[in-house]
Design a protein that fits this description.
The structure is a single chain. This protein has three helices and ten strands; from the N terminus they run αααββββββββββ. The chain has about 170 residues and is an alpha+beta fold. The strands form three sheets. Strands 2, 4, 5, 6, 9 and 10 form a six-stranded antiparallel β-sheet that branches. A hairpin with a 4-residue loop joins β4 and β5. The longest helix has 18 residues. It is elongated and about 85 Å long.
Length: about 170
């Protein structure tokens, strides 16, 4: 049988690990000596090159949820935008909501409201369920540095941060 001959050939360790359950089922059918074939293949995997270095990485993904009704405050009629700097602490963001003019409203825990403009080609509508981002070393969400990810896979950067401020009449 061709299958039995193929099983006696040296195996790639990745293929062996991926197909081991299937091979265990087939070996009693196609081979007279299943233990020797499987033992040889396992020995090939074990006796392969040893790892000289093991690297363990840790990634922290932060989720910013949509704003809830108890966190949102009524937005006054007359607002102006003022520059809010290039970074904002991620821990200070209480919620997010997309706007019709392709921006994200960031509801801050200290009751401020910021707008975040997105890069061209990004749609704020994708962020209806909030966004995800990787934690940065400084714990900040920064313009033109960090990427925000929507649940649908969209990946965008912020181009500016503005604070909404009420204007007295």
């Amino acid at each position: 049988m061709e299958l039995a001959g193929a099983l006696h050939q040296p195996m790639n360790s990745a293929i062996l690990l991926a197909t081991a359950p299937l091979a265990a089922l087939l070996l009693p059918v196609v081979s007279d000596q299943p233990s020797s074939v499987l033992a040889g293949a396992v020995e090939d995997v074990i006796s392969g090159p040893a790892a000289g270095q093991v690297r363990i990485e840790r990634r922290v993904i932060i989720r910013v949820a949509p704003g809830t009704s108890d966190r949102r405050q009524p937005v006054p009629r007359r607002l102006v935008q003022q520059p809010a700097g290039d970074c904002v602490p991620v821990a200070a963001i209480g919620g997010v909501e997309p706007t019709r003019d392709n921006r994200l409203l960031l509801f801050m825990r200290d009751r401020r409201v910021l707008t975040a403009a997105l890069t061209d080609g990004c749609s704020a509508e994708h962020f209806y369920a909030g966004f995800y981002m990787e934690n940065s070393a400084d714990g900040q969400l920064c313009v033109r540095r960090d990427h925000v990810h929507a649940r649908d896979g969209s990946d965008c950067q912020l181009t500016s941060l503005q604070q909404l401020v009420t204007v007295s009449r």
